[in-house]
Design brief:
single chain; about 210 residues; alpha/beta; Rossmann fold; 7-stranded parallel sheet
């Protein structure tokens, strides 16, 4: 029986991932690293409330096998590019280092379609640098998911995103061939893919494109 650690458990995909991890018979315990306690009760769940600025040391004494990271924000929510970079890059990489220190050998993270450390787009460049720096950590298995637009019930109702989601849903059937990777992907499907790819136990770095989720 294994222990999993998850960060970003209150986000769109993170909520679905946490529920699926708790239902997964392969895990005896699930440690959720959160900023404030969630209103969830489960015998398998351990909530570790932390200050994310203290990530390098918050998992001292913790032991686990698998790590899952769903951390991410928007520039509107973050308030600045600097703050978004801190969350989307620094927190993710620091969490990964803390997981490795805790004995995690298999690590899965959500990135973005088009992530590239040299991209002129700030968001895609941030995700690309995050991927680059995670690859430097000696996990036996690193799974990087690169989904397109995420579909699901968001806790925050954003008019712009709702419009885009509607367009994506309507256009998805028309996206075939090389355009298939741009189809929207459900939060539940992304969560399930994270677990599935980790439990394969295949060594090395595995980048999963949106149309493979």
């Amino acid at each position: 029986m294994k222990t999993a650690i998850i960060s970003g458990a209150t986000g769109l995909v993170g909520k679905q991932l946490l529920q699926q991890l708790l239902k997964n018979p392969g895990y005896e315990k699930v440690i959720a690293v959160v900023r404030k306690r969630m209103d969830i009760t489960d015998d398998k769940l351990v909530q570790q409330v932390i200050d994310f600025e203290q990530l390098p040391t918050v998992l001292d004494g913790v032991k686990a096998c698998d790590g899952y990271c769903c951390l991410g924000t928007t520039i509107k929510t973050a308030g600045s590019k600097e703050r978004q970079y801190r969350i989307d890059h620094d927190y993710v990489v620091e969490f990964a280092h803390a997981c490795h220190k805790a004995g995690v050998n298999r690590f899965a993270v959500i990135s973005s379609l088009g992530a590239n450390a040299e991209s002129p787009n700030f968001y895609l460049r941030t995700k690309g640098k995050m991927e680059r720096d995670l690859k430097k950590i000696p996990f036996s298995s690193l799974v990087i998911l690169q989904p397109s637009f995420l579909l699901g019930d968001r806790s925050e109702h954003r008019a712009g995103e709702n419009i885009i989601a509607g367009i994506v849903k309507c256009a998805s059937p028309l996206m075939v061939g090389g355009l298939k990777k741009y189809r929207g992907v459900r939060d539940t499907s992304v969560a399930a893919c994270l677990i599935r790819e980790i439990q394969k136990g295949e060594e090395g770095v595995h980048v999963i494109m949106s149309d493979q989720i």
